[in-house]
Amino acid sequence: MRFLTTLLLSLTIVSASPSDTIPLDLKELDSVIYVDGVQAAGDQQAGLSMLLNLADAYKTFGLKGTITAVFDDDATPIILGSAAYNTQTKTSDGNLYADAIAGLLERGVVIAVCGNDLASKSLTAENLLPSVKTTPRGILLVAQLTRDGAFCLPTPRSPAPKPRTDLWPTTTCIAWRAASRLRPGKLLRVFCQGKSWPRPQGRWR
Q1: Model pLDDT for residues 146-195, shown as the tens digit of each residue
Q2: I want to staple 36 with a disulfide (CB 3.0 to 4.6 A). Which of 13, 72, 93, 145 is the partner?
Q3: Cα–Cα distances in Å, from 97 out to 85, 94, 115?
Q4: Same domain for 135 and 190
Q5: What is the 3-state secondary structure (H, E, C) of the chain?
Q6: 53-110, pLDDT tens digit by residue?
Q7: Residue 5 falls within a domain, yes or no?
Q8: How many other CB atoms sit within 10 Å of the CB of residue 47?
Q9: Closest residue by Cα to residue 68 from 114, 108, 101, 110
């Protein structure tokens, strides 16, 4: 009897233990991602890799909804035709991302580019890859879609650059955090005993 009681208690504890799998309960989801930089991620630009994975996940799990990618700033050349791409990047190989963009469009991803950024680069809609749309201001489109219920995915980023020490002088440098009365996370104040020197790149905490 004691053995049976122990066995039943053990089974109860095992059945009550949490599962290693977190179930998904998504039926419909609109997503938007703002791509404004080029960071390497294997053979693909980081934002493109994320978009391809997201589009495939929508198909795998049967999710309904729209994925919108808004390109701006340094990422704008990715959605240009070969001639404009070569001009903007000062290369001659054409747009190496064109196939990836076509793959996203085939998966139903809506791709838009900031019209203001196009104008600043002396480009027009005629310079874009087929089926790429324009919007007056990319960041405002992201805000509008978010307001209307779309989930805004974080923009993929490469690791922050490390502070450069090769430019530091041989004289002693003294660095200390800002006083506690200042906002948390404020950059370190750096002073050098000696001549001035270029500040290290990157953000210090």
Answers
A1: 999 999 988 766 544 444 444 444 333 333 333 334 444 434 333 334 33
A2: 72
A3: 10, 9, 20
A4: no
A5: CHHHHHHHHHHHHHHHCCCCCCCCCCCECCEEEEECCCCEECCEEHHHHHHHHHHHHHHHHCCECCEEEEECHHHHHHHECHHHHHHHHCCCCCCCCHHHHHHHHHCCCEEEEEHHHHHHCCCCHHHECCCCEEECCHHHHHHHHHHCCCEEECCCCCCCCCCCCCCCCCCCEEEECCCCCCCCCCCCEEEECCCCCCCCCCCCC
A6: 999 999 999 999 999 999 999 899 999 999 999 999 999 999 989 999 999 999 999 9
A7: no
A8: 25
A9: 110
Write down the residue that tokens 């703002």 correspond to: 34
The reply to whether 140 and 167 lie within a common domain is no
| Tokens of residue 154, six digits | 């974080």
For the chain, the residue count is 205
Residue environment code for 1-39, b if the CB has 16+ CB neighbours within 10 A, otherwise e: eeeeeeeeeeeeeeeeeeeeeeeeeeeebbbbbbbbbbb
Domain extent, residue 195, equals: 160-205
Q: Which two tokens stand for residue 133?
A: 């749309």
